[in-house]
Amino acid sequence: MNNRISIYGSRRQDAYLKELAGLFSFLEGAGFQVTVHPKLANYLTDKGVDLSGADMSLRMPEDTGLVVSIGGDGTFMRAARWVGKSEVPILGVNTGHLGFLASCALDETIDMIGAICRGDVIVERRMMLRVQCGSLLEESWPYALNEVAVLKEESASMIKIRTNINGYFLADYRADGLIVSTPTGSTAYNLSSGGPIVEPTLDCIALSPVAPHTLTVRPLVVGGGSELELTVESRTREFRLSLDGRSFSLPAGERVWIKRAGFSTMLVRRKDSNFATILRDKLLWNASSPDVR
């Protein structure tokens, strides 16, 4: 990597101000050029944190060699939008909750940057999904790292989602919605709706109905090269389209096409990290249940 590091972060860092000041001081002393997104930069300067000469930019500089995302998984996904199609690697620093996408804690960040400079890390290519429909413009960033979901309006009855895969009819999902998930997103909304957990580097897409009206539909995993066409019917005039939690209102009858994006999000993780460890640590996989007496 080169010596330009760009930092994106949430504004919920009150418990970490001292550590963040130390990180900026280290980066300056080590000769890195540092750019900070204005939302985080303004928050930290208002809290009295010295950014040690770092500059601010709404756009990630083109010469960035590494992006550091400080926060939780939601922050990481916003950082991925900041990176855009450039495929600059992102180091997730967890100051949030579960942190599936975060490779390290804040007090480990300096060591991780050293490991990155030595090439002693793993950079994983994570699939992105692209959405195309007449009502969603390119300026709305029609991409998702975790999932695309079509959902009923809050006050509406269930919707019907006619689903074609690679041009062939698959099913009419009568449900509260349908989640189309990447492997990365399999442990997010997909999991909470009963969908499968998928190893995040696999080349596949998961389809999981939300509260289906019939027992004859189950979550389904298809190839990563599949192209989906969804047509939503609703008793109301609209339905919701959600991309990684960003919600848009679309007219009933709108067709939505979903396929793999032409670029990936590059996630940095430590060499001693693996999916099995993450499952055990984050989801308490195979943990013994407490005795009930």
Summarize the structure.
By secondary structure, the chain is of the alpha/beta class. 19% of the residues lie in helices and 37% in strands. The strands form two sheets. Strands 1, 2, 3, 4, 5, 6, 7, 8, 10, 11, 15 and 18 form a twelve-stranded mixed sheet that branches.
Task: Kindly describe this structure.
With 293 residues, the protein is of the alpha/beta class. Helices cover 19% and strands 37% of the residues. The protein has helices at residues 17-29, 38-46, 73-83, 109-118, 189-192, 275-283, and strands at residues 4-9, 33-36, 55-56, 66-71, 90-94, 104-105, 121-132, 143-144, 147-151, 159-165, 168-175, 177-181, 204-210, 220-223, 228-233, 238-243, 246-251, 255-270. The strands form 2 sheets. Strands 1, 2, 3, 4, 5, 6, 7, 8, 10, 11, 15 and 18 form a 12-stranded mixed beta sheet that branches. Strands 14-13-12-9-16-17 form a 6-stranded antiparallel beta sheet, with no helix packed on it. Helix 2 (38-46) links the parallel strand 2 (33-36) and strand 3. The radius of gyration is 21 Å and the shape is elongated. It starts with a strand and ends in a 10-residue tail after the last helix.
Extract low-pLDDT stretches. Answer: none
Report the mean per-residue pLDDT as an integer: 93
The rounded Rg comes to 21 Å
* Share in β-strands: 35-45%
Summarize the helix and strand pattern as letters: EHEHEEHEEHEEEEEEHEEEEEEH
DSSP, total strands:
18
What overall geometry do the principal axes of the alpha carbons give? elongated
Number of helices: 6
Strand-pairing-aware structural class: alpha/beta
